[in-house]
């Protein structure tokens, strides 16, 4: 079915999104990269920026670009080391393609799943991406294929995009593909396959509809796209799948109209975030705060600054989830700490402007940022997390 005949629906409201673009949309027929489809997607990003929105781009295409750089000398097989070498070679032309299409400065961000599993590197990656967005820069994220092993073999940029969406607190994950929607069966093999306009839950029946990779240059397929949608849904982020090859579909996105498949989120983004913060295992240590901080943290969406801290109990590290307690020892909030216990002890009671002076470095003025914290009083008052 043509994308022109898909059911039109409103694109979910969003202020920050992650857009994943696959190799099939960037690889030229004769090798290398082409702007044929990327140009319309870049125009969508530019329009979104003009409307006050932010986009993080997750782009494939480095291996295809590297192969074209070597031409006749390019390795023909699928040897992992060879593919990693091609990815390293192709990163520069892939970034150059997006810079040539973007009115914004473009920044390359290379990540592996290990970067996102390690708490400290996770916080550093998030801080970098947030700062790039604040500077009105277009981050172009890719897997660090030269050091990744399982990720490169699995072609996991779909899942990486979902993880990045959660990392930057995105409102929406957009997956531009060479297929226009999720179908009830593989439309390349079953002429009776019908497109699904909306998926409210990724059940085993829905997952069974996934097929394999669509072409030789792409290593992902519908299955990895559904995995990505499931990860995003768990983080409270809806996903849309659409054809990046259909100019009318991409132009409709610019008008807030989706011709493709919408995957609903399991709960709102804030609910998902608060649920995780409320129920995830916390470090054994805690941060004790004064009465003023207790009042500020009780449902008022305030960050925890050094001035409100009395002391740190026990041990915890930067990136650990810690409980924040009052003078009576009762927990008032939980959050991800930007500093380790020893650093918190040195900062306790100080003005936030003194952080760099005391430590010799700074991860920010907030010891626990409000976006990384849930007030237990707020939960008890609203019951929002367990909805």
UniProtKB/TrEMBL annotation:
Pathway: Amino-acid biosynthesis; L-proline biosynthesis; L-glutamate 5-semialdehyde from L-glutamate: step 1/2. Gene3D superfamilies: Acetylglutamate kinase-like, PUA domain. The keyword Kinase applies. GO terms for molecular function: ATP binding; glutamate 5-kinase activity; RNA binding. Its main location: cytoplasm. GO terms for biological process: L-proline biosynthetic process. Transmembrane segments: none annotated. It is an enzyme of class 2 (transferase). Substrate binds at residues 60, 145, 157. SMART domains: PUA (SM00359). ATP binds at residues 20, 177-178, 219-225. Its EC number is 2.7.2.11. It is found in: Cytoplasm. Belongs to the glutamate 5-kinase family. This is Glutamate 5-kinase. It comes from Dyella solisilvae. The gene is proB.
């Amino acid at each position: 079915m043509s994308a022109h005949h898909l059911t039109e629906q409103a694109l979910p409201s969003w202020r920050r999104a992650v857009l994943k673009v696959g190799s099939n949309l960037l690889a030229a027929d004769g090798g290398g990269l082409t702007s044929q489809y990327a140009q319309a997607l870049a125009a969508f990003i530019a329009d979104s920026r003009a409307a006050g929105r932010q986009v993080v781009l997750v782009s494939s295409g480095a291996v295809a670009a590297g192969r074209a750089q070597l031409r006749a000398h390019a390795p023909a097989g699928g040897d992992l080391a060879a593919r990693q070498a091609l990815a390293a070679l192709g990163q520069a032309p892939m970034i150059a393609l997006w810079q040539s299409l973007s009115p914004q400065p473009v920044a390359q961000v290379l990540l592996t799943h290990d970067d996102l599993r390690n708490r400290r590197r996770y916080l550093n990656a998030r801080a970098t991406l947030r700062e790039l967005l604040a500077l009105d820069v277009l981050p172009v994220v890719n897997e660090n294929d030269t050091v990744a092993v399982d990720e490169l073999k699995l072609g996991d940029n779909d899942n990486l995009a979902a993880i990045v969406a959660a990392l930057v607190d995105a409102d929406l994950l957009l997956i531009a593909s060479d297929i226009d929607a999720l179908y009830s069966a593989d439309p390349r093999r079953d002429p009776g396959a019908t497109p699904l306009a909306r998926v409210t839950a990724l059940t085993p029946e829905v997952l069974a509809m996934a097929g394999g990779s669509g072409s030789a240059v792409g290593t992902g397929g519908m299955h990895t796209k559904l995995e990505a949608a499931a990860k995003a849904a768990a983080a409270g982020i809806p996903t849309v799948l659409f054809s990046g090859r259909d100019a009318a579909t991409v132009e409709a996105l610019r008008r807030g109209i989706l011709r493709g498949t919408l995957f609903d989120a399991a709960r709102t983004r804030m609910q998902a975030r608060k649920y995780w913060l409320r129920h995830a295992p916390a470090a054994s240590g805690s941060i004790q705060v004064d009465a003023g901080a207790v009042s500020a943290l009780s449902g008022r969406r305030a960050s925890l600054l050094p001035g409100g801290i009395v002391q740190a109990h026990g041990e915890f590290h930067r990136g650990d989830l810690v409980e924040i307690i009052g003078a009576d020892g009762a927990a008032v909030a939980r959050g991800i700490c930007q500093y380790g216990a020893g650093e918190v002890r040195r900062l306790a009671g100080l003005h936030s402007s003194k952080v760099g002076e005391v430590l010799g470095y700074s991860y920010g003025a907030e010891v626990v940022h409000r976006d990384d914290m849930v007030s237990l009083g707020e939960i008890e008052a609203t019951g929002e997390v367990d909805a």
